[in-house]
Structures are given as C-alpha cells and as structure tokens.
Amino acid sequence: MPQTAYVRYINAEKILAYQKPEDQLVCDGERHFQGVQQESELVWTRINLILKRAHEKIVRQELCAATHLLEYAAALWSELTEKNEELMWRLWPNDFLKVRKVIGQGGSTADSPRFIESKRRGKEFWSPYRKALNERSIKLLDVLSSDKDSDLSALTKAMMWYDYRVQEFNISHIYLVLGEIGDRTVGLKGGTVDYLLKRYEHYLFPELWDSVNSLYTNFKPD
Ligand code: HEM
C-alpha cells in the first residue's frame, strides 16, 4: 500500500490488517458480518465521546449545546440500526451458520466494552437533567404541559429522541437475530430473543417516558 499521508493518518494498514484475508473467509457473508461488527465498535467510540461532551455541557447548564450533542449521538445510533438492517436484508442464514462456527463460544457483542460504556453514559445523563429541573424549580410534568419552547423542552425532546434511537437499534437487532438464528436458538452468551426483549424494556430514561402518562391523569375528551 503506498504510504500516502492519508494512509498514515487513518492508520489504514493497521485497520485493514484486522479484517480476515479473503482466502480465510468461511463465506463472503463473513466479510460483511465481521465488517459490520468492526464498524460498530468504531461508531460506539464516537457515540461515547459525544455523550461525554454532552454530559459536561449539561453539568455546566449549557442545555442548548447538550441538546445538539444528544441529537448527534442519536443520529449515529441510526447508522448502527441501518447496519443491522443491512445484515437482516443481505446475510443468508446458512452463511451466518458457517460464520457462527468460527466466532467461538461466548463471543457476543454483549461483552463489547464500548457498547457497555454507551449504556452507562446514556443512563448517567438522567442525574444532571434532574438537577437542571431542580435548579429551575420546575417539575418534569410542568415542562411537558407547557406550550412554551425553552432550552429545557428542547433538551427533554432530545433525550426522548436519543432513547428512542437506542431502542430502535435494539428492535432491529431482535429482528436480525430472528432472521439469522431464530427465536429459540441460544446465543453464544446464553441469550435468546426472549432475553433480548426483556433487555429492550430497559429504557435509558424510564421516568421521562412515564411522565408522559401523568400528562393524561385527568384527561377527559371534550
Ligand atoms: C448477525 C447475527 C447476530 C446474531 C444471531 C446475534 C445474536 C445475539 C444474541 C443471541 C444476543 C444475546 C446475548 C448472547 O447470548 O449472545 C446478542 C446480544 C447483542 N448483540 Fe447481537 N447478534 C447478531 C449481530 C449483531 C450485530 C451486527 C450487532 C451490532 C453491532 C450486535 C450487537 C449486539 C449487542 C449490543 C448485544 C447486547 C445486547 C444487550 O445486552 O442489551 N449483534 N446478539
């Protein structure tokens, strides 16, 4: 590979060295499966940096900046969802069966430190958000029931949007699992679709979603 500035800057040789050589692939689908997994790790490092910065902003009460960053991170989750959809659409189940034999027992993305970090960083957002409400002496229900646009309402919407994009990824992953190994085959770490469905119920901001119910407590149609 010619050693151009571009090749050196992105560490192209190192990155590509982590891909299986073509003659070692168990099938062409393995290029795409391994590629998507590798790309996802890179995207999670980007999401995690954005979440870290968003956290710094909300702690400093810079709500607008935190909002933009959360929206950016949400858009990156959509890219991950598209990758799941790509595999669901393209990866033939019998090809994945061949790939699965060479992944190795216990080789599950559930153990990805970057994925685990993204979950932690997402959930950590709740505490400074609560603090921002307290410092303004506003209840979440007041934000939801207000007709006025504010930095707080924009941030609240961005948090819903972020959580939604993460859950959307989870749902697309469930369908990917269904399409590749079915809903009763046990995963490499012992999970099935049933386990994944239970995990999917774990919203990042359950209180936020629940507060929408409170808006309707005394609701009566005209
Ligand atoms: C293509 C076929 C795939 C199958 C059959 C599959 C299957 C599974 C299963 C059964 C689990 C539960 C834990 C276990 O026993 O392994 C799991 C977890 C997980 N998978 Fe996949 N997966 C696939 C692809 C992917 C891809 C492309 C990604 C995206 C990077 C991904 C990300 C994850 C994550 C993040 C978890 C942990 C979920 C949690 O703990 O909430 N998987 N997968």
What are the bound molecules? protoporphyrin IX containing FE
Shape: globular
List low-confidence stretches.
none
- The CATH topology turns out to be Methane Monooxygenase Hydroxylase, Chain G, domain 1
Average pLDDT number:
94
Structural domain tally: 1
The profile of the biggest β sheet is:
none
CATH architecture label name: Up-down Bundle
Radius of gyration: 21 Å
Would you give an account of this structure?
This protein is mainly α. It has eleven helices and no strands. It has one domain (5-204): Methane Monooxygenase Hydroxylase, Chain G, domain 1. Helix 3 runs antiparallel to helix 4, helix 4 packs parallel to helix 9 and helix 9 (151-181) runs antiparallel to helix 10. The model has no long low-confidence stretch (mean pLDDT 94). It binds protoporphyrin IX containing FE (HEM).
Layout of helices and strands:
Elements: H1 5-9, H2 12-17, H3 28-59, H4 63-90, H5 93-103, H6 113-123, H7 126-135, H8 140-145, H9 151-181, H10 193-200, H11 206-214
Helix pairs in contact: 3-4, 3-6, 4-9, 9-10
This protein binds protoporphyrin IX containing FE.
Protoporphyrin IX containing FE binds at residues 33, 36-37, 40, 84, 87, 91, 96, 108-110, 115, 173, 176-177, 180-181, 187-191, 195-196, 199.
Structure described in brief:
This protein is mostly helical and 222 residues long. The chain has helices at residues 5-9, 12-17, 28-59, 63-90, 93-103, 113-123, 126-135, 140-145, 151-181, 193-200, 206-214.
